[in-house]
Design brief:
It contains four helices and 13 strands. It has 203 residues and is α+β, with helices and mostly antiparallel strands. The chain has a domain of 53 residues: SH3 type barrels. The two termini are 26 Å apart. This is DUF3298 domain-containing protein.
């Protein structure tokens, strides 16, 4: 079993469960198919599982490491964005709503996506290599956001919280009246959701 499934914290875990999306952070495995680093490049992307009939053998030497996600909401929580090549329309939609939701950066549609990647990198990993989180009032968060509640990752959708697992989500619970919680989804992605981007959620 390979360590190539990504959880909402951005961690790589081993599980027999398959994912609905493919991800890329560069070459992060060795010749024994073991993960040796968290990332190699700043462009963390989310791809479709099939594209133009191409076939890849998993974790081949010196080839980028294939990662997998339960759904797009999980990928965003982990810090990945849509791929420009295999998800061109989604990428354009992502860029439009990311810019709309984050006007304070002064970007426009012609701004290279690498500029967005630079910002995302600061929102993913802290100096001590831990995941960057922040506190926010639960009732002010949009659908598709992951929060840390009861020591576990939960997805917020339509006023309910859904506990994440590699196999899928458990039955939703009503949003607790707890005030602020730690948010796992990067801040600029949450802003993007508020601006109108609705991520795919496996619920």
């Amino acid at each position: 079993m390979l360590q190539n499934r990504v959880n909402p914290f951005g961690q790589l875990i081993k599980t027999p469960e398959r994912g609905a999306w493919l991800g890329n952070r560069g070459v992060i495995h060795n010749e024994q198919q073991e993960i040796v680093r968290a990332y190699k490049i700043k462009a963390w992307i989310t791809c479709v599982l099939e594209f133009r009939g191409r076939h890849r053998e998993i974790m081949q030497p010196d080839r980028w490491t294939e990662l997998f996600f339960l759904d797009e909401a999980t990928a965003f929580s982990a810090g990945h964005r849509p791929c420009f090549q295999c998800r061109y329309k989604d990428h354009q939609r992502f860029k439009e709503f990311w810019i709309k939701g984050n006007p304070h950066y002064g970007f426009n549609i012609k701004t290279p996506v690498s500029k967005i990647d630079d910002i995302l990198q600061t929102e993913r990993i802290a100096a001590d290599k831990s995941k960057v989180t922040y506190e926010e009032n639960l009732k002010g968060l949009p659908n598709g956001t992951f929060v840390f509640y009861d020591e576990k990752p939960y997805l917020l959708k339509d006023g309910q919280l859904y506990l994440w697992s590699p196999a899928g989500y458990q039955k939703g619970i009503m949003m607790p009246d707890v005030g602020k919680l730690l948010v796992l989804t990067p801040q600029s992605f949450v802003n993007m959701f508020n601006a109108g981007y609705v991520p795919q959620m496996g619920i």
